[in-house]
Write a structure and sequence with these properties.
Two copies of one chain form a homodimer.
Chain A: E1 4-9, H1 20-27, E2 31-37, H2 43-47, E3 57-63, H3 69-88, E4 93-97, H4 107-114, E5 119-123, H5 128-136, E6 147-151, H6 156-164, E7 168-172, H7 178-187, E8 194-198, E9 206-209, E10 221-226
Parallel strand pairs in A: 1-4, 1-5, 2-3, 2-4, 6-7
Antiparallel strand pairs in A: 7-10, 8-9, 8-10
Enzyme class (chains A, B): transferase
EC number (chains A, B): 2.1.1.130
Keywords (chains A, B): Cobalamin biosynthesis, Methyltransferase, S-adenosyl-L-methionine, Transferase
């Protein structure tokens, strides 16, 4: 009997936005795996540090911070091989995933490598998009509105088309792409419908109109563009 | 001192996909409010029935099942007035929301009426979209992919444009719109990229290729259209 790999969503960052199911799986885990950017502490692990059993084996998957995909692919290869060893010996492995495992999560790279050979269970988590909407106190989408998620690295044209085609938009992974996204929203006349949200649900959370956003955005920031404006819906 | 209204997301339906924060708020509630379709038990209440304190006051907001918006608006007016009475007397009110409160949730109608006058806190929840993706064991979006949510009541043209502009799509609220959505996906040549998911995370969950989906879909069903297909990402 081989073990099961669990991909458990942890939500946007506040420890109490973890689901009961994820908390239970983590609390009972023999083996825990998580990604970590080379040299830095793991954000995923920090969310649930208080839930990890003291005796658990921990597999830290160090992702190199370079733009080429080769080195990261090699890191996922190595991480998947290490997890596979545990699964092959019949131990379950609980893999920690910021947000939701299947929405822009690095867990997908492990899933692609291991799902063909082992039993995998996914536990969905609260996404940063709805957490940002809650932090901004503004509904994301109602009735028959179209809601689109756009990664900020997309081109000006792709961002423009995506924003134009939706009623509400979440633009993720801002980082160094913030000036480009500002330019696109200005050109569409949507800056005053745009809200900047940084580190939603964390102690350092920032929410403000885009016009008042800082010059530099971290990776864990997003812009919500909310075109609808009927206060009584 | 007036009370606080909490809009707490409950996730897609499995009781253990509630967050720790929502569970704590419900377990400590003096007053609980929830929507219910006239004559039927409340789905939201059923998710967390085991967490509601025995002595809690319950406010059931009966939503009439008619297509005109007037009667539903009147029901939200009355529900909001009843909640306002409790808040005005200094009691907190925990309002139960299927999925996430701010993504196609009926909570928005209460929020629009009460947020101008009372303190409101939103607790985000797991959405049915990522729960469906987990159930289907298929990632929703990776890297720089565009993800769009489309309500099935939209027109053929609006659905076609939304699907064409995204890499992954979740088509929500299928119900009686299933034949139209099938037609649109067939015309786009995307039927074999489409997965039907009904009642994700519940005991009666169904996941199958769209071609094998039943003729009739309930409201709590969706189609995931996943154009990307690189197993190693």
């Amino acid at each position: 009997m081989t073990g099961t790999m669990y991909g458990v969503g942890l939500g946007p960052g506040a420890p109490d936005l973890v689901t009961l199911r994820s908390a239970r799986l983590i609390g009972a885990a023999q083996v825990i795996a998580y990604p970590t950017l080379a040299g830095a502490p793991s954000f995923a692990r920090s969310i649930v540090a208080d839930l990890i059993p003291p005796g658990a084996t921990e597999i830290a998957i160090e992702i190199p911070m370079v733009r080429e995909r080769g080195p990261a692919q090699a890191a996922y290869d190595a991480g998947a091989a290490r997890i596979a060893e545990e699964l092959a010996q019949g131990r379950d492995v609980v893999t920690l995933c910021e947000g939701d495992p299947f929405l822009y999560g690095s867990f997908m790279y492990l899933h692609a490598r291991l799902a063909p050979r082992f039993r995998v269970e996914i536990v969905p988590g609260v996404t940063s998009m709805t957490a940002a909407s809650a932090a901004a106190r503004r509904p994301l989408a109602a009735r028959d509105e179209v809601f689109t998620v756009l990664p900020a690295p997309l081109s000006d044209d792709a961002l423009t088309a995506g924003i134009a085609g939706a009623d509400s938009v979440a633009i993720m992974k801002l980082g160094r792409h913030l000036p480009k996204v500002r330019r696109v929203l200005d050109a569409l006349g949507l800056t005053d419908r745009s809200i900047y949200v940084e580190r939603a649900t964390l102690g350092s959370e920032t929410v403000c109109p885009l016009a008042e956003a800082p010059e530099k955005a971290p990776y864990f920031s997003m812009i919500l563009v909310l075109k609808g404006n009927d206060p009584w819906l």
